[in-house]
UniProtKB/TrEMBL annotation:
GO terms for molecular function: DNA-binding transcription factor activity; sequence-specific DNA binding. It comes from Staphylococcus xylosus. InterPro entries: Homeodomain-like_sf, HTH_AraC, HTH_AraC-typ_CS. Residues 149-247 form the HTH araC/xylS-type domain. This is Helix-turn-helix domain-containing protein.
Amino acid sequence: MISTLSIRNHYTSELTRCINEIVILLPLNKPCKINLNGTTITVTDGIIVNNADLYQMLDVQELLELKIPLPLFIEKDTNISKSYFDFNRIQFVEQFRNLVLESIHQPIQDEFSMNMYISSIIEFLLREARVVLNNIYIPYLNTKHPLVGRITKYIHENICETLNTKHLSQTFYISQSYISILFSSNININFKHYTTSLRIALSLYDLIQDNKNIYEVAIKYRFLNVTTYSKHFKYYIQMPPKKYIFMFKKGHYKSPYKIVSNNVTSKNYLNKIQEPTMHTSNSDYSLNLSKLSFSNCFKSMTTLIQIDDIYTLNHFYESHIVGNDTTTMFSKINFCVLDTHLKQLNALSAQQFIHTIKQLMLKGHQLTIKITNLSLRQTQKFSVAKLLAELATDSAQITLQFEFAYNTFNELSNFIEKVHLKYPLIKIGTTIDCIIKSKNTLPQMLHHITSIKADFYYIDLDLNRFYRLMAPKVVKSQKNYNLKQVLLIFISQLGIEHANKLILTHLTHKSLQDYYNTSSQQTHILLTRFLVELNQSICGFGYPYYTDDNDRIMLFNKFHCPMPIVHIYSFLKVFFKQQVSLLPNAIICKTNWHYHILLFSNVEKTSCIVKINHHFIKSFPVFSRLLNKDHGMITNLIPSNIDQKLFGLSYIEQINSANYPLSKLSLHYYKEPLIYKLSQSSIQYIMIAMS
């Protein structure tokens, strides 16, 4: 009698009676169908099969099956026969699943660990899933055939009486052969097997719970004699009753002290998912909420949304702000209109443009306009000066962005002075790419940048292009600096005051890979790390609303579906303007009533386990959101190799409606730590409510 763990994959079992064990079934990836006592159930989180239950697995895939011997439960509670376990009664489902799956994540090596593992599961079930009855548990059989229902009910109520087809035929006024047909066709099990297996299952309690001798038990359940009882007992339990009693009294049912996987598929599957954690400690990463220091202020960073032209700005407003406001995900939004050279801007279009801008400003957003002409006249029909006059009351929310490519340093500096005099509340920004390209040394570059009286410094260069230009100017020795080192040196030399004006507007997947020196395709993880690490150092980041350059990190794809960056900002939003604890793969803050935790996986590991210890003395609710390859990754939902023209807009909208992180609300048992297993592509947000 040992505990066995299996992973069932594309597996269908025969209908069988659960005897001398409690079976825990947990789907690992997708819902599974289980026939339990005549009812086919779709199992999502898990199900428990009790002693005497009839059950069958129906083409299950990646289903964990853990069988624990019944004597281990009787050892914990000698009155276990008058109860059963119901998975639906478990409040702390995630904790129970983590508890059972522990043997997969952390291979059990010794006797003590095995005892603790099985014992903790039994104690959890007794505490959380047990339903107490007045009488011994005999499962009700669900059937659509009324006569079968009446017969099985009669059998259950008279299980200790004489039961055979002759007796039942007289009781129900039907032929013996018809009874056999009813059982075979409706229950898929023959009559004798149904009654005998039930009697053996129930007799176990008498043998070891009530300490009755074998003869008494055989007589109680109407077996002809001890020999007949022993014969059937050995058939179902694989040992005679005498040995069964002896093993229970001596405690031999506890050995061997390891989980046994009973098929090759299980072993291969277990080996595959154990491999990432084989060389780690009990958890790859451990947090203790009561010992954290919240010493860093997580700034509310500027988000520069780059819009091609004013028509696109109006489209963005109607698509993503009117009705469903996507911009609530971001902090300090600044809409940057890249091209204001409009040749067909009539009076109606101009008025609509101004209305859109005013609506955006009412929501607290900012507007940035690129300036290429020092007269503030972009075209004959569009004057920035006229626009500024229309928005005079909102001028504090406007930024003019200048570029040195169009003017000399002195010309631009003088013009900025004039703008400040005429529009004292307007902010000034300047693109510094030309300075980076033209100056030969880092000190020269820094002198020119800091001499400009600007509120923002924009770097429109891709980070790899920035690195190629900057590296020769930063290096003073034979040492070769990488991209990350060069950027951090530049920020450091710029000084805190001026670095806090810096906005990086050209982030690419390739440059993030180079920045972190990895070939990982999980660049949403790299982006999250990048945002968190540079939060203390610079002003913010810019992203295109949409671009045909697939290497650029953009907000939406061509179907207006949010890209992962939108979800990342929704995770980070709660941390802005909060005192936080910054850890290598996590950011944590504590408000009056909540802990907020953001975990992001290590791209160099296939998976990692995070254990969160807490100090709470009663159970508490936990809200979580998970972004990974299955949830919130629109590039996975709409693969690039599929021609989207084959689908109508309605299908894209349906896909987009599923393009969100997986949200879950659960109640956590206070005596257990929170444990999360993060796959290589996972970002996990957790909110703990403090009661």
